[in-house]
Amino acid sequence: MALSLTRNPRRFALGILALWTLLWPASAALAADKAPLTVFAAASLKESLDAAGKVYTARTGVPLRISYAGSSAIAHQIEQGAPADVFISADSDWMDELAKRKLIVGPSRRDLLSNHLALVAPASSKITLRIRPGMPLAAALAGGRLAVAGPEVPAGRYAQASLTSLGVWDSVKDHLAPAENVRAALRFVAQGATPLGVVYDTDAKVEPNVRMIGIFPDFSHPPIVYPAAVVAASTNPAARDFLDSLQSAGEAAVFRRFGFIVLKRR
User: Fold this and answer.
1) Which CATH class is domain 2-114+225-262?
2) What is the pLDDT at residue 2?
3) Scanning 31, 172, 242, 256, which has the fewest C-beta atoms within 10 Å of its C-beta?
């Protein structure tokens, strides 16, 4: 059973849910007396953070309210006063922006995770392509469009940087299907609306209606980093503890099961 959970993120998520269900009677009594913790997180974290959050709530009794969107959209919401306790971004730029405005608690900031960038196609697609400099990406689109997150979103920035580094950006920049976040780009591909898309490989692993064509080399784009911090306006005492828990052995194991690279705590 342990082996199958490791190889199958969806089955692992179900296992986490079953564990949480068993622990619910005890944790529910604790949660009734504790204020919910509101977490704003990058869309690509959906399944893994949901699973890690259930482990945290079962252990501490602190209920979580997690909202997912593109990191840029979340940062703008926090700038406008949205009531969040914790922000987890998919790149450092948007966290830096909030730090400049003193909207996060500086000492609480830490880099949690890393990821890889992947080229995906619908599961039924016959497209084959080796990711390399000068690859015939435009020809592979065959008149279709390339699904990518928009230019404000970290995944979109990583995609443009990688395609530029590989010398193929100019051939596809007029044939894009921009999406509001990386999960929206993933849906374009999963639904067959586009023949190819650029997403994180962790996205591809949780979507059965796509298949991975290949992984973009890490040298072709800036390092993919997920920083997290307590929001300055938060008054919830559990916020810092929640961040610490995400780097604990239990929650780190959850993220690894979903394909994330867990960064060492500094």
Assistant:
1) alpha beta
2) 38
3) 256
Confidence at residue 3, expressed as pLDDT on a 0 to 100 scale = 37
Local confidence band at 14 (pLDDT 50, 70, 90 cut-offs): low
Per-domain boundaries in the chain = 2-114+225-262, 117-220
Tokens 């405005």, residue?
A: 101
* Number of neighbouring beta carbons within 10 Å of residue 150: 19
Residue range 117-220 in CATH 3.40.190.10: yes
- At 67, is the pLDDT very low, low, confident or very high (cuts 50, 70, 90)? very high
pLDDT for position 9? 58
- Segment 128-149 shows an average pLDDT of 98
User: ∠11-189-157 over CA atoms, to 5°?
Assistant: 100
d(CA 94, CA 242): 21
Distances (CA, A) of 132 to 141, 154, 223: 16, 22, 18
Q: Is the dihedral of CA 114, 120, 124, 128 positive or negative?
A: negative
Tell me how far apart the alpha carbons of residues 22 and 234 are, in angstroms, rounded to a whole number.
31
pLDDT digits (tens, 9 = 90+) for 103-123: 999 999 999 999 999 999 999
CB 103 within 8 A of CB 231: yes
Tokens of 82: 């949205």
User: Whole-angstrom Cα distance, residue 240 to residue 196?
Assistant: 40
pLDDT at 15 (0 to 100): 56
From CA 148, how far away is CA 133, in angstroms rounded? 19
